[in-house]
Amino acid sequence: MSNSVTVVPPGFDFQELYVDSRNSLPPSVLSWLASRRGCPVIAQVGMLRPEKGHEFMLNLLFHLKMNGRQFCWLIVGAGSPELREHLQYQIDSMGMHDDVFIADNVFPAAPVYRVASLVVLPSENESFGMVLAEASAFSVPVVATQIGGIPEVIQNNQTGTLLPAGNKHAWMCALNDFLMTLGVFIRWLAWQNRI
């Protein structure tokens, strides 16, 4: 008898995921996105729990905003009311209420990937990273922590960007590079459409 262990990742029904993506987002999300037209949408899909890195992400995005970067951060997922209240308080205290929207549960979450410019997963602990596989199915760029089962889903610098958990400098550089590159691309597209 062998002493080896085989890990079998969860299965995906990508056809169902694509069908689900045709659903409409909640009116509150659509309204918020319409008010932020033209800004890159950074999406974070997952439960509101301390280990998911929402506070870490908020602090990074605050610094990027102070450096002139434009974006909107769509948080999809529910959690304890206390944690949501605390996060909303921080968002408001930092003057980020126009830039960040907590959508609570969006089920199915697949329509989020249609509007996302980038999906982030700054978790301190993650067993697999199902969200990353879903985002990749829609060709949405991903930036995530290089922990747990995430490297089973994302190959660094090939299918996404993996960064050390909690490394503010690495995350700031990656997000800044993404936003700057996306800005250049959007300006190029606008110029091409004039021809």
UniProtKB/TrEMBL annotation:
Record-linked InterPro entries: Glyco_trans_1 (IPR001296), Glycosyltransferase_grp1 (IPR050194)
Top-level taxon: Bacteria
Presence of keyword Lipid metabolism: no
Keywords recorded for this protein, A-Z: Glycosyltransferase, Transferase
Enzyme Commission numbers on file: 2.4.1.250
Enzyme type, top EC level: transferase
Domain (Glycosyl transferase family): residue spans on this chain: 40-179
CDD domains recorded: GT4_PimA-like
Entry's Gene Ontology molecular function annotations: D-inositol-3-phosphate glycosyltransferase activity
Pfam family, one: Glycos_transf_1
Transferase listed as a keyword: yes
Family matches, as PANTHER family: SULFOQUINOVOSYL TRANSFERASE SQD2 (PTHR45947)
Name of this chain's protein: Glycosyl transferase family protein
Source organism of this protein record: Escherichia coli
Species classification: Bacteria, Pseudomonadati, Pseudomonadota, Gammaproteobacteria, Enterobacterales
